[in-house]
Design brief:
- The protein has two domains: 154 residues, Fructose-1,6-Bisphosphatase, Chain A, domain 1, CATH 3.30.540.10; 124 residues, D-Maltodextrin-Binding Protein, domain 2.
- The chain is built from nine helices and 14 strands.
- A seven-stranded mixed β-sheet has the order 3-4-5-6-7-8-9, sandwiched between helices.
- The longest helix is centred in the first third of the chain and has 30 residues.
- The structure holds D-MYO-inositol-1-phosphate (IPD).
- The site of D-MYO-inositol-1-phosphate has 16 residues, from strand 4.
Length: 300
């Protein structure tokens, strides 16, 4: 119920702030070179640190203690082989550090992305970037908010009168390189980037080009930035449920249009199938698109 969600939001927001403190501690450890242990997962650009694992353990154990009947899906538990079936039951879906590459390099755009799925649909999202002190929250049917530092929460989008975008040529668009650099994925992405930002005379976009493209290095923060109004759109291929769960709620509750991300949940009966869905995304059959508030790009 909505009052349950309110309580869960309060608990998960406090937990995300605790996780954020641990992420900052990890960042200090990297700066002081006491953390040199950066492991590679599926390839040399897919990174994990001991802090990804520590943050996930903290969050998982606190959630388990407070909500013992809820299921849990986490990026690092999944990588370690824990792949319980996704059911209709309430399920937390967590990326302990979304933007691990930024975290490792000291680029201050990384966050914890904590979502709740119910009946296989995302219903609550908490995204916290401890480097900037930006907290984004969203609850299905209850709007989404940005809290910066100790300031009062502000309802998203920040502009109460968003101007509709007539076409792509006034848009700033979030795109990501991701960690899958296989030929199929990288050429699909490069083609899209060129279409979005290319020369209007020669561009496939038919004489329009976006103002610019941005890579924030965190899927969740892209969704949040669309919700905020700083990006008009976010386009990516190849996300996982923990990358998108919280962001979907935050963006949609701000009036954004999300395409593709829901399929990650809806088409999925058990977590093994996440791989299948992701594979479809990677081969270009499914795309994650968040279109900004009021924007009507003619090509996407
Ligand atoms: C990744 C980041 C990246 C996006 C990838 C994600 P991680 O998550 O969000 O920006 O391009 O699709 O998997 O590995 O930093 O948790």
């Amino acid at each position: 119920s909505s009052s349950d969600l309110k309580d869960i939001l309060e608990f998960t927001t406090a937990l995300a702030r605790r996780a954020g403190a641990l992420i900052l501690e990890g960042s200090e450890a990297i700066n002081s070179a006491s953390l040199s242990n950066v492991e590679e997962k599926k390839n040399s650009v897919d990174l994990v640190t001991e802090y990804d694992i520590r943050v996930e353990k903290l969050v998982q154990s606190e959630l388990k203690a407070k909500y013992p009947t809820f299921q849990f899906i986490g990026e690092e538990s999944y990588s370690a082989g824990k792949r319980d079936p996704l059911t209709d039951e309430p399920t937390f879906c967590v990326d302990p550090i979304d933007g691990t590459t930024n975290f490792v390099h000291g680029f201050p755009f990384a966050c914890i992305s904590l979502g709740l799925i119910y009946e296989r649909k995302p219903v609550l999202g908490v995204i916290y970037n401890p480097f900037l002190g930006h907290l984004y929250t969203g609850v299905k049917g209850q709007g989404s908010y940005l809290t910066r530092g100790s300031a009062a929460p502000r309802k998203l989008p920040l502009s109460s009168d968003p101007k509709p975008l007539p076409s792509l040529n006034q848009a700033v668009i979030g795109v990501e390189w991701g960690s899958d650099r296989c030929e199929t994925t990288i050429s699909a992405k490069a083609t899209s980037f060129a279409r979005l930002a290319g020369d209007p005379e020669k561009g496939v976009a038919g004489g329009r080009m976006a103002h610019s493209l941005r890579s924030m290095g965190s899927a969740a923060l892209n969704y949040a930035m669309v919700a905020q109004g700083g990006l008009d759109m976010y386009w990516e291929i190849g996300c996982w449920p923990w990358d998108v769960c919280a962001g979907v709620v935050v963006a949609e509750e701000a009036g954004g249009i999300v395409t593709g991300s829901h399929e990650v949940f809806e088409a999925t009966k058990n977590t093994d199938q996440f791989g299948v869905v992701t594979e479809e995304i990677l081969t270009g059959r499914k795309y994650l698109v968040v279109r900004g508030i009021g924007s009507t790009p003619e090509e996407s």
